[in-house]
Amino acid sequence: ELLTSQGLRLDGRRPNELRRIRCKLGVFKQPDGSAYLEQGNTKVLAAVYGPHQASKSKMSNEGVVVNCQYSMATFSTGERKNRPHGDRKSTEMSLHLRQALTAAIKTELYPRSQIDVYVEVLQADGSCYCVCVNAATLALIDAGIPLRAYACACSASMSWRDDAEPLLDVGHVEEAAGGVCLTVASLPSTGRIALLEMSHRLHMDYFDIVLSRAMQGCRDIEVVLDKAVREHLAQGWTKQDVVTV
């Protein structure tokens, strides 16, 4: 059971409550943009290089090519093992990241160019893809790459205790319970969905409820990310003013 008799989840959250989000932009100097994001106990680093000239095999005259690489640190889960970059899960996650970020980036501004996005999961505790999208969005903003809107991702599940209750921002224990998990990557300010993935079958009567909860989570995350960006920019202007004086 994912909900207690008091209506709380196993980690103490209410059904519609996000995990605590902490984030920071500009954590590295070598990349053009970087970010670190914690969502609960899931922790992700993201780095962006570019735009730079694309190789001939990838070059496109219509817009920039977005290259994404997803990886997990050896110590990211309780089971320590080597995770090669070319395994099936990493390849699938990389493609899903590319789909979400390409929808957000103004690709037409950089023809014949390429943007490289690298994300690494330092600690995995559920909804890893969602946290990677959110961290990569901050890294793109730190790199100064124009976006149509924030790309935000959130997951939602369903609890069947007494009555059907949608759960927001699924953690590892809730994922491991084997229930349905809906992952949504969207541009909340435009209402556009960039990616939609479901782990199991769900009756259509409940689909709209779970999707609505996930979309609300994306909008809530956008508010958090926007606040972090504004604070980062404010700190940058303050430092410049001090140097000028």
TrEMBL record:
Keywords assigned: Cytoplasm, Exonuclease, Exosome, Hydrolase, Nuclease
UniProt main location, coarse: cytoplasm
CC terms in the record's Gene Ontology section: cytoplasmic exosome (RNase complex); nuclear exosome (RNase complex); nucleolus
Pfam families linked: RNase_PH
UniProt-annotated location(s): Cytoplasm; Nucleus, Nucleolus
GO MF annotations, alphabetized: exonuclease activity; RNA binding
SUPFAM superfamilies: Ribonuclease PH domain 2-like, Ribosomal protein S5 domain 2-like
GO biological process, one term: U4 snRNA 3'-end processing
Domain Exoribonuclease phosphorolytic intervals: 17-146
Function, as annotated: Non-catalytic component of the RNA exosome complex which has 3'->5' exoribonuclease activity and participates in a multitude of cellular RNA processing and degradation events.
Assembly, per entry: Component of the RNA exosome complex.
Family per similarity comment: Belongs to the RNase PH family.
Name of this chain's protein: Putative exosome complex component RRP41
Source organism (scientific name): Biston betularia (Pepper-and-salt geometer moth)
Organism lineage string: Eukaryota, Metazoa, Ecdysozoa, Arthropoda, Hexapoda
